């Protein structure tokens, strides 16, 4: 029998023996936390794997995608709406507050990117181990991932406290909105444990086929945020005066901490975590190395995406504030339409990961092509909406005819890119499942970094295009990035599982 993931990582090499040598049973600190959360979050019955289909190596693909993709997309929708609520309430105070919120959140997002990467890494690693039917490795990786998340959180909170003001100063001018951003950011740092540990825990749940837990958590957090924002901002008349703008950050701290408690309670109620021991949470260099190798590309890719937004905005400033505003609104419309695709391509990661770990490569290929088929169906629906409904979609956000026209032009180009985005995201998930995440980083650096900057420069500076040059520059970068990603996926799949062609092909 192959050594498998547990042997390669040596996560559990002598932890239990060490514990036994001391002559006492080691009860996990995390188990104590979970016992507390169980008194907060009602549980029923013995520990279970809360997913409807814990084993993704068997059963119909359609069932797995439905059970994984729909909840994931809904969770992302409510996460997006959560931020919209914050922007709305900041606007009730002043434009200065809205600007401070945007800048403060940008600085915080850089640290959040670590959480996204951790979740992606744990989803891939744990799903691989689960596919190998190696419960010890799955449990060890989950424990190590949570320990890594805790350590990373502490370091980021300390670093963010000192580095945050400098980041905010880079993208703002002295004045009220910078002060607002700084106060918001420093309070928001307290929400970092809630984000990072929740993302990490969600990655573990995803590896077990559970995307519903995060969906339900984000739905509750969204509605809680609607109530907490005005309460924390304006207080209770005659009793407490509230915190003003900083109340938005305080509401996020409370709601996201609750999300973390809920997600961790779900994790510790998985069957594999029933016999978890404290020794399994002691940092293991080999495990941490595997997590970092899997996490770093995804984290860096998000940071590159963040920087890419600045590149586009820098180019658009030559065409006035209408162009910048139009891009901001159109981007939100694009994100909403992409949510089903993101949910579906995100579902591909645990499905492909488990089957890759089980060495059922035909089923990995089936999962990829099934994802593409569904994706093209979604594209057929979304593309006409973007081509012919762009102006209509812009109107709820602005009444400025110039902004509407410019935004509609971006959405027109975006319609042609929709199926390309779908394939790009699915290839990223496949590469993660095959434990080749470094390729996703280089593709992202090209597509969202060098490619965007270079092609926008070509269209505007050399070919003298107007704002259309920005849209065509983005489109060219995305299209060439897709070709690059497809070539990489074909070559990597050939070396790891005999190629992307199905056995019937």
Primary descriptors:
17 helices, 505 residues, globular, mainly alpha
What report would you give on this structure?
With 505 residues, this protein is an all-alpha fold. It folds into 2 domains: 14-44 and 57-283, no CATH class; 305-505, no CATH class. The chain contains 17 helices and no strands. It has helices spanning 4-9, 15-21, 29-40, 61-93, 95-131, 135-170, 176-188, 192-207, 212-234, 246-267, 285-316, 321-357, 361-388, 390-394, 401-433, 438-462, 468-497. The longest helix has 37 residues, at 95-131. Residues 1-52 have low confidence and may be disordered.
Q: Identify low-pLDDT runs.
A: 1-52
- Sheet-strand content, in percent, reads under 5%
**How far is the first residue's CA from the last residue's CA?**
30 Å
Number of helices: 17
Find the count of extended strands (DSSP E, 2+ residues): 0
| Rg on CA atoms, Å | 23 Å
Which percent range fits the helix content?
over 70%
Average pLDDT works out at 79
Main structural class: mainly alpha
Sheet with the most strands?
Answer: none
Number of domains: 2
**Helix and strand succession?**
HHHHHHHHHHHHHHHHH
3D shape: globular
Report a brief summary of the structure:
The protein is built from 17 helices and no strands.
List the helices and strands and how they pair.
Blueprint: H1 4-9, H2 15-21, H3 29-40, H4 61-93, H5 95-131, H6 135-170, H7 176-188, H8 192-207, H9 212-234, H10 246-267, H11 285-316, H12 321-357, H13 361-388, H14 390-394, H15 401-433, H16 438-462, H17 468-497
């Amino acid at each position: 029998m192959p050594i498998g993931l547990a042997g390669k990582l040596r996560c559990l090499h002598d932890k239990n023996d060490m514990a036994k040598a001391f002559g006492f049973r080691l009860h996990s600190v995390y188990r104590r936390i979970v016992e507390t959360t169980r008194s907060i979050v009602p549980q029923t019955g013995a520990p279970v794997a809360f997913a409807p289909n814990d084993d993704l190596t068997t059963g119909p693909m359609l069932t797995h995608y439905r059970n994984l993709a729909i909840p994931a997309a809904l969770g992302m929708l409510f996460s997006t709406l959560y931020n919209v609520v914050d922007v709305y309430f900041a606007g009730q105070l002043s434009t200065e507050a809205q600007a401070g919120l945007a800048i403060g959140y940008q600085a915080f997002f850089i640290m959040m990117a670590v959480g996204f990467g951790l979740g992606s890494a744990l989803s891939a690693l744990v799903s691989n181990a689960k596919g190998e039917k190696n419960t010890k490795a799955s449990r060890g990786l989950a424990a190590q991932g949570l320990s890594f998340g805790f350590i990373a959180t502490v370091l980021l909170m300390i670093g963010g406290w000192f580095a945050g003001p400098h980041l905010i100063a880079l993208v703002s001018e002295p004045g009220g909105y910078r002060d607002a951003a700084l106060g918001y950011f420093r309070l928001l740092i307290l929400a970092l444990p809630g984000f990072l540990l929740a993302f990490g825990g969600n990655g573990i749940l995803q590896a077990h086929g559970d995307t519903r837990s995060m969906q339900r958590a984000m739905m509750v957090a969204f509605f809680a945020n609607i109530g907490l924002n005005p309460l924390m901002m304006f207080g209770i008349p005659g009793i407490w005066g509230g915190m003003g703008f900083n109340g938005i950050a305080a509401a996020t701290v409370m709601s996201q901490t609750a999300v973390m408690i809920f997600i961790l309670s779900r994790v510790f109620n998985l069957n594999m975590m029933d016999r978890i021991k404290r020794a399994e949470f002691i940092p293991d260099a080999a495990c941490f190395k595997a997590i970092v190798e899997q996490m770093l590309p995804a984290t860096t890719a998000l940071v590159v995406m963040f920087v890419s937004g600045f590149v586009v905005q820098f180019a658009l400033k030559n065409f006035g504030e209408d162009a910048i505003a139009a891009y901001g609104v159109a981007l939100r419309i694009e994100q909403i339409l992409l949510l089903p695709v993101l949910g579906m391509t995100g579902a591909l990661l645990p499905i492909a990961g488990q089957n890759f770990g089980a060495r059922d490569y035909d089923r990995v290929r089936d999962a990829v092509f099934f994802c593409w088929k569904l994706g093209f169906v979604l594209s057929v629906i979304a593309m006409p909406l973007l081509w012919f409904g762009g102006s209509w979609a812009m109107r709820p956000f602005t009444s400025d005819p110039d902004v509407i026209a410019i935004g509609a032009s971006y959405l027109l180009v975006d319609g042609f890119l929709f199926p390309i985005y779908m394939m790009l995201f699915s290839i990223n998930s496949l590469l993660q499942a095959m434990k080749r995440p470094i390729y996703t980083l280089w593709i992202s650096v090209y597509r969202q970094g060098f490619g965007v900057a270079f092609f926008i420069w070509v269209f505007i500076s050399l070919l003298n295009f107007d704002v259309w040059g920005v849209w065509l520059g983005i489109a060219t970068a995305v299209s060439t990035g897709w070709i690059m990603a497809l070539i990489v996926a074909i070559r990597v799949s050939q070396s790891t599982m005999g190629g992307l062609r199905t056995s019937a092909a």
